Amino acid sequence: MTREELAQGQCVPLSGAGHRLDAARLDALLALLPGWARDGEAIARSFDFAGYEETLAFVNAVARIAQEQDHHPDIAFGYSRCRIAYSTHSVGGISLNDLICAAKIEALPRP
After folding, report:
1. Residue 3 belongs to what H/E stretch?
2. DSSP for 30-94, written as a single string
3. Contact 99, 106 (CB under 8 A)
4. What pLDDT, in 10s, does the model give residues 8-64?
5. Buried b (16+ CB within 10 A) or exposed e, 20-42
6. CA 69 – CA 86 distance, rounded (Å)
């Protein structure tokens, strides 16, 4: 699988621990997404921007992806920095949906 193929994926409703990614599969998919790392039972990445307007535009673009995919990350942001964390609560860990959304974020145009 490539990052582009991952980004073209669509989130689907998941429930149950059977949908959690095992360590080997998670490592293989994270290798497609430089900057993203496992953070406990989530994947996360921080992004830096030149200023507030760029940061807020990025947060809004991530929010659009979240709404389209019905899969919503934890977002923390300030003037020029944003941190995105994904986990799938319904499976109790990290699922393919988290990686699909991370890949979609990586495909966003950046200034």
Report:
1. helix 3-7
2. HTTSTT-EEETTEEEEEEE-SSHHHHHHHHHHHHHHHHHHT---EEEE-SSEEEEEE-BTTTTB-
3. no
4. 999 999 999 999 999 999 999 999 999 999 999 999 999 999 999 999 999 999 999
5. bbeeeebeebbebbeebeeeeeb
6. 13
